[in-house]
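Annex B. Sample input.
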Amino acid sequence: MDPVRVIGSLHGVEVAVAVTDAPWELGVDVLVVSVGSRLGDLGLALAQQVKSFRVDGVDLAGIPADRPRGRALDPGEPLRHVVLASPHSATGEGVLSAVAVATRAGVLAAARTGAASVALPLPATGALGAPHEAVAAVAVPALRDALRSAPRSLRRVVFVGRQPDLLAVITTRTAVRRAVARPARRGRRPRTTSRAV
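Annex B, continued. Sample output.
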């Protein structure tokens, strides 16, 4: 069974959700990974599974929310790139504000690699323990904003996480229902919405 559930479309980009502890196995080009002073849970798991993923010499704590760092992977790996995004604020703003900035910047950085598909966790919900619902409420509108200006090569974004209720968390948020157009029925194009949340 395919773990990826399509939930709609934003600005012509398919948006989906996958409950998985191995998002590098989803066939995506780029994985966004949360970092702080160290790799988060997802980054640590990725480092064990993808041998060419290295962060030696990268000042993870110095990565600002608005300027993620990209890491190209060796040919033959399940991903082409990893984007290191920080949901931490250097200015002292709240975690959720930094999550919105990091989500938008991470998606744009991933798209600039020429990626057709990106896996995106809910930043700050792992090691930082931010509530999934609160993070989804800011991450989805941030994704919508990023997709307004993302290169047209990007065709799919998959929200990923291990929590069994990820689909419900993403799809039951009012912001998500307003931001994401539903999948098209047979013979119809998906509509794209730009309504304000």
